[in-house]
Write a structure and sequence with these properties.
- The complex is a heterotrimer of chains A (263), B (679) and C (321).
- Chain A has two domains: 215 residues, Rossmann fold (3-Layer(aba) Sandwich), CATH 3.40.50; 32 residues.
- Chain A contains seven helices and 13 strands.
- Chain A is globular, with a radius of gyration of 21 Å.
- The mean pLDDT of chain A is 91.
- Chain B is elongated and about 100 Å long.
- Chain C is an alpha/beta fold and 321 residues long.
- Chain C folds into two domains: 175 residues, Rossmann fold, CATH 3.40.50.620; 120 residues, TPP-binding domain (Rossmann fold, 3-Layer(aba) Sandwich).
- Helices cover 26% and strands 29% of the residues of chain C.
- In chain C, the strands form four sheets. In chain C, strands 7-11-6-1-4-5-12 form a seven-stranded parallel β-sheet, sandwiched between helices.
- In chain C, α3 packs parallel to α4.
- Chain C starts with a strand and ends with a helix.
- The chains are: A alpha/beta (263), B mainly alpha (679), C alpha/beta (321).
- Chains in contact: A-B, A-C, B-C.
- At the A-C interface, α3, α4, β7, β8 and β9 of A face α4, β7, β9, β10 and β13 of C.
């Protein structure tokens, strides 16, 4: 089985306190630690487990620049055999549709039975996987927490829905699945593993290689654009509530509502 | 009476019969030992041939003088008696072998009075060993300590019985000869009064000569057959330690607090190129570690002391060894081809088992044969790390160590924030301080523990120390990264810190964190000498440069909890106690488990991130031990002990009844600041 | 302004709460327009759902097909692509169903797509300005979306307050005949109910987290009731796990890392090991008897009270509202 996993390098929210820069047009990136988007890592692990069982190889791909190569290396240290950096100036400023268009170009160059993505990026909105599937006219399932190979190019998959319930589907290959965290326990990638793949060549593919048309990607083609960042209201600083219990409770309920803790 | 060698048995002369028997026995034993050595030949290298004097010292102390045996009194005394008996009877066994093939005196140098004295000692040794066998068997059968487990009982009784038979046969052999001599009117042989041969002689004084002759040679035959059977049987079980312990102890690890390199003779830079890392299959163990498996006598002292075992974690150091030994016996059989087996993890060990160890070292401090456990655990963890099999709860902190230099994922520039307002300088390259205070991650970032850092800084100020910290440049010492098997991460952290420390230009380093202390002292190398704050306090107090106020509440009873990496791994037992005893009015009691038998609080560093399956927290048991000792204040000298014990007090529901304080915090609180230094 | 459609989730003949929220969101895009509801399904409950939506929607497009008996995004996407006019704005609740449906739908309709929208600031010509959250809610962002060729917009459930009064008296229009072939390459098999205790606290938006202050196992019910009233789950600190409660519920360095919107720390002293497990900058409310508890230094809101008395009172008040 040939599996492609689309990954992304993001600032790791579990290790960063995200702050906004002075201009308000971006987050403060100086002290940020980047890593692979967490659900993407689960997707790679799942792909590796599938090929360990059924044979085949795992390819990882990302859309980005030189800096993004590090996540490809990390996933290669995990066991991905091939990696591709989809990089072109014309891709800059793409929205999710643009990224999906680039990935579509890459998928069509190969012969993948299965395309996996993480369910959502830290700085994204669970968009690219579903768009890519629609562009390729592949079936799609999101929030996947279980994959089981069936006979005859089919998978049995589990989707996570509300209340911890699960939906079970049968899906034909080739398809696109977006993987939810918790589907497995990703293996650890130590410093040794990363160093061992440090010099493995990673192919870089541009717009021309992927057959991506100029007008289809990039800032000009983007229909969705982020204007600025701002900090949600209700800042820090422990406010001690005092007064009678009933009074405190009413004030607390107000605060909870303001932050979406009550509906 | 005819001599054993001259007599005829069936068709053969004694000489021929026993020559065959002896040669057969020796050949058998040689073959078995050769087979047992087969895996050692395939094992990883291990550098154990240096410092022969230190090694001989270990042999004298731990082998010949049986140094650790009396720590378990009954078993220890029995073992010392048996061991001494075996040493004495070794030459007797040799001379008996000789008797079978030759009439000439087996030990010509033992004739005369020296021989007479040896014979008396020997008669009593035989008797004592025999009695010890009975006592040991009775213990196994009727008063079995829990640490032995049930499975080994039959085997143990069988072995004890064989040795008892050996002793009885020897006594019968000698007693019958003496009885025959008397009956033949020859001058009576002198036998030690009330020894077994003496009893035999008197019991058979009236027996007819032919019966005595038959008994005599039968006893000899029984002795020889049993002797060779035992010799060849020992390599199949715990009795193999009789042969291997001498080597195990000679080649024992000499350096406390250290961890073995990934591969002997492979430098840090070349570790990347190794095809595999750590122990994954049995052959990845070093030959010394395999020898350890053979040497284990299954006495269970390691597991009896192991805190992981005590709280029901899936780890028992004894089983770590026994399972490996059984694996070895199965895959390297005495008969048939040796087979390369499956991976150890998932085979004989579970992942949980390997991560359950806190590396406290209680097992190693107890083992009479100096068997190593921490290095094996670390090697197995290296194998797991290399295979990517690291628990999710440990992956985050390891990654944060790599990217942030601390396991909590906190930003580096806030590392020195705790020291703001304490007047602590950050050493930034100008070599103008004498001393560096190495803080380490938990003291830098954990709000509760920062108080220990602040107390340490105040003490150093008070003693007039010209000191500073590395601030944002400092990274985690990597002590636990190494002990959790992430060697390359440790090396990166070490190289970074060592360079920063050297460029600070200080003459010495002080820390309040025993884990950092151990890392700097044993793992780093090429950094200035390191002291723990308790050593500084003890020195300054002894010299009269600091004095303490009397304690406020003289009803409080204090007890000192030895942190593993200060006590067991670095032998700093006395200094913290001296500091406590220097505080006027402080009442101090000892817990039943203290000093090198201290009971781990639950483990430090990355161990705080790993949630093992267990029935109870180690800290909870420890807090109870403190209460049993009659204390209501626990004093420790390690940030991780503080975290674990504070937590444990809550869990045990002992808030208000027990408190815990760090030695530095206590010393800072009690410092008599009014009097200037030097008074 | 293009026409606005709302995809209605419903179950057992009852429309989801999000139905009213989508109507409110539509108002924020175009106050002059009453949106159209799209209700797809099969079986007896369908008409009741359509009926219930009439006050808030100008039209209710009813799509009945056996293939839609289970809310399955794959056939529904096909149906919507056939039925919806090009250039429309389609609102979808951003839950597991919307995540499955919408990105692909936007491609099939050749429309823009904005995910997980919290606020709508209004339209200006071809541009619609909305608010989203990124980095686990640590920061918000204004996002501009080109709606000139239509848009699919996923709305975060609970983000929009339903309109006070609505009296659109919408009519039900059956569109079932226009949906075309719904054969897809993904087939629904079954839904498996969660095992008891299968709560994943790392994904819960609201956590009522209990510490030593809960005192006894019997008192856990107090926290559970509050969590139920708030629509969240109960988590705990290490000492509670040690007292033989559920380990999967533990927040902290040796437990789970959580990223809720609201974190109620009840009777938790607030050790560093616990606090490192709370990420994503939630509103942290600390309730503790001890005014010196370190948790008050880390919390946004602090209340000094006994949780055994305070929590039931809070639960009652929330239920009253």
């Amino acid at each position: 089985m040939e599996i492609l996993v689309c990954v992304k390098r993001v600032p790791d929210t579990s290790e960063n306190e995200i702050e906004i820069n002075a201009e308000g047009n971006d987050i403060e990136r100086d002290d940020l630690v980047y890593s692979i988007n967490e659900p993407d890592n689960y997707a790679v692990e799942e792909a590796l487990r599938m090929v360990e069982r059924a044979g085949g190889i795992v390819t990882v791909a990302t859309v980005g620049g030189e800096d993004d190569e590090e996540v490809l290396r990390r996933e290669m240290a995990m066991g991905a055999k091939q990696a591709a950096l989809l990089s072109d100036e014309s891709f800059d400023g793409s929205d999710a549709r643009g990224i999906a268009t680039v990935l579509k170009g890459f998928v069509q160059k190969g012969k993948y039975d299965l395309v996996l993505t993480g369910v959502q990026a830290e700085d994204g909105g669970a968009q690219v996987g579903g768009m890519l599937a629609a562009m390729l006219d592949y079936p799609f399932a999101s929030l996947v927490t279980g994959i089981e190979a069936l006979d005859g190019r089919k998978l049995k998959i589990t989707r996570e829905i509300e209340g911890g319930n699960k939906e079970i589907y049968e899906i034909d290959l080739p398809c696109v699945l977006s993987i939810q965290t918790g589907i497995n326990e990703p293996r650890y990638v130590g410093m040794r593993g990363i160093r061992q793949v440090a010099s493995v060549p990673i192919s870089a593919l541009g717009a021309a290689d992927l057959g991506v048309e100029d007008g289809a990607v990039g800032a000009a083609a983007a229909r969705v654009k982020r204007l600025d960042y701002f900090v949600p209201p209700a800042g820090k600083g422990a406010e001690m509530l005092s007064g009678g219990r009933a009074e405190i409770i009413d004030r607390l309920i107000e605060l909870l509502k303001a932050r979406g803790g009550l509906q | 009476m005819e001599s054993i060698a001259e007599a005829n048995y069936w068709f053969l002369s004694g000489r021929v019969l026993f020559l065959i028997l002896h040669l057969l026995g020796v050949a058998c034993f040689a073959y078995i030992v050769a087979r047992r050595l087969a895996p050692l030949v395939r094992a990883q290298s291990d550098f154990r041939f240096d410092r022969p004097c230190a090694r001989l010292g270990k042999v004298l102390q731990f082998w010949l003088a049986q140094w650790r045996h009396p720590r378990y009194r009954t078993a220890g005394i029995l073992h010392i008696l048996i061991f001494a008996g075996f040493l004495i009877l070794f030459s007797r066994a040799m001379s008996l072998l000789w008797l079978g093939v030759s009439d000439a005196a087996a030990t010509p140098w033992f004739s005369g009075s020296a021989g007479r004295i040896y014979d008396i000692i020997r008669d009593y040794a035989t008797t004592i060993v025999f009695l010890c066998m009975i006592a040991a068997a009775a213990r196994r059968l009727f008063f079995r300590p829990a640490r032995y487990g049930k499975n080994g009982t039959a085997d143990a009784i069988f072995l004890l019985a064989l040795i008892a038979i050996l002793m009885a046969a020897d006594s019968l052999f000698e007693g019958t000869a003496a009885a025959a001599h008397t009956r033949q009117g020859q001058p009576p042989e002198f036998l030690a009064a009330l020894s077994m041969p003496w009893l035999v002689k008197h019991a058979l004084a009236a027996a007819p000569l032919p019966a005595l002759a038959n008994l005599h040679w039968s006893a000899y035959l029984l002795h020889e057959v049993t002797f060779f059977f035992l010799l060849c049987y020992r390599p199949f079980g715990i009795q193999f330690h009789v042969e291997t312990s001498l080597f195990s102890i000679y080649f024992a690890k000499l350096d406390r607090g250290t961890v073995k390199p990934v591969r002997w003779g492979v430098s840090g830079q070349r570790l990347d190129q190794l095809p595999s890392f750590g122990v994954k299959t049995f052959e990845d163990f070093t030959w010394k570690h395999m020898l350890d498996f053979y040497s284990c006598a299954d006495c269970g002292r390691c597991s009896d002391q192991c805190p992981a075992r005590a709280v029901g974690r899936p780890l028992s150091p004894r089983m770590l060894t026994i399972k490996a030994r059984d694996y070895c016996f199965t895959h390297y059989p005495v008969l048939g081809a040796s087979r390369n087996g499956r991976p150890l993890i998932g085979g004989i060990y579970s992942e949980d088992e390997i991560w359950s160890c806190t590396t406290c070292g209680a097992c190693e401090a107890e083992c009479p044969l100096l068997i190593e456990y921490i290095d094996k655990i670390v090697d197995l963890r290296r194998g797991l790390v290399d295979a990517g099999r690291v628990p999710q709860s440990l992956q985050k902190p390891l990654k944060a160590l790599e990217s942030r230099g601390n396991p909590y994922g906190k930003v580096a520039k806030k590392r020195g924030d705790w020291a703001k307002g304490c007047g602590v300088r950050v050493l930034d390259g100008k070599p103008d301080a004498d001393t560096l205070y190495f803080v380490d991650s938990i003291t830098s970032y954990d709000e509760r523990i920062q108080a220990i850092g602040q107390a340490t800084a105040k003490i150093l100020h008070h003693t007039g120390e010209n000191f500073g910290i590395l601030g944002a440049v400092e990274k985690d010492s990597g002590h636990e990264a190494r002990r959790f098997g992430e060697e390359l991460l440790f090396l990166a952290l070490r190289d970074h810190n060592a360079k920063a420390i050297r460029s600070a230009g200080v003459r010495r380093v002080v820390t309040a964190d025993p884990h950092a202390f151990n890392a700097l002292r044993h793992d780093y190398g090429d950094v200035p000498p390191v002291e723990h704050i308790s050593q500084v306090l003890a020195r300054e107090s002894k010299a009269g440069r600091i004095r303490f106020h009397p304690v406020d509440d003289s009803r409080d009873v204090y007890t000192y909890h030895d942190p593993c990496y200060l006590g067991r791994h670095n032998q700093v037992f006395d200094e913290p106690r001296e500091v406590l005893d220097a505080i006027p009015g402080l009442r101090r009691v000892e817990m039943s488990r203290s000093r090198d038998r201290s009971f781990c609080c639950g483990g430090g560093g990355l161990a705080l991130f790993y949630e093992s399956k267990e029935e109870e927290r180690m800290g909870v048991q420890r807090v109870r031990m403190a209460a049993e000792a009659g204390a209501n204040v626990m004093v420790t000298a390690c940030p991780f002990c503080m975290v674990n014990i504070e937590d444990a007090i809550k869990v045990a529901g002992m808030e208000g009844k027990m408190t815990v304080i760090d030695l530095a915090e206590l010393a800072d609180r009690q410092l008599a600041r009014g009097s200037p230094a030097g008074i | 302004m293009p026409r606005i459609f709302a995809c209605i989730e419903h179950k057992a003949g009852v429309a989801d709460d999000s139905a009213a929220e989508l109507a409110a969101a539509a108002k924020r895009i175009d106050a002059a327009q009453v949106p159209v509801a799209v209700v797809a399904g099969w079986g007896p409950g369908l008409d009741a759902v359509c009926e219930a939506l009439r006050p808030a929607y100008s039209e209710i497009w009813r799509i009945a097909d056996r293939a839609l008996a289970h809310p399955d995004a794959e056939p529904l996407r096909k149906a919507l692509a056939s039925v919806l006019p090009r250039g429309s704005i389609v609102l979808v609740p951003h839950a597991h169903f919307g995540v499955d449906l919408s990105p692909g739908l936007s491609i099939k309709l050749d429309a823009a797509f904005v995910s997980d929208v919290l606020q709508i600031e209004g339209a200006e010509g071809a541009w619609l300005k909305v608010v989203r959250q990124e980095f686990g809610g640590q920061v918000s962002a204004h996002v501009r979306c080109d709606i000139s060729s239509g848009a699919v917009i996923n709305i975060r459930p609970g983000a929009f307050r339903p309109l006070e009064s609505a009296n659109a008296a919408g009519r039900v229009v059956d569109q079932s005949a226009r949906i075309g072939d719904l054969t897809v390459r993904r087939r629904y098999l079954e839904t498996v109910a969660s095992e008891t205790g299968g709560v994943d606290i790392s994904k819960e938006p609201v956590l009522v987290s209990i510490g030593r202050g809960i005192q006894a196992q019997e008192n856990v019910a107090i926290a559970e009731e509050l969590a139920a009233a708030m629509g969240g789950a109960v988590s705990c600190s290490r000492p509670v796990v040690d007292a033989k409660w559920d380990k999967s519920r533990q927040v902290g360095s040796s437990g789970c890392t959580v990223k809720p919107r609201v974190y109620l720390a009840c009777g938790i002293s607030g050790s560093f090991q616990h606090l490192v497990g709370i990420k994503g900058n939630p509103l942290v409310v600390a309730i503790n008897k001890n005014p010196k508890a370190p948790i008050f230094r880390a919390a946004d809101v602090g209340i000094v009270d006994d949780i055994l008395e305070f929590l039931p009172a809070l639960t009652d008040r929330i239920r009253e509202q």
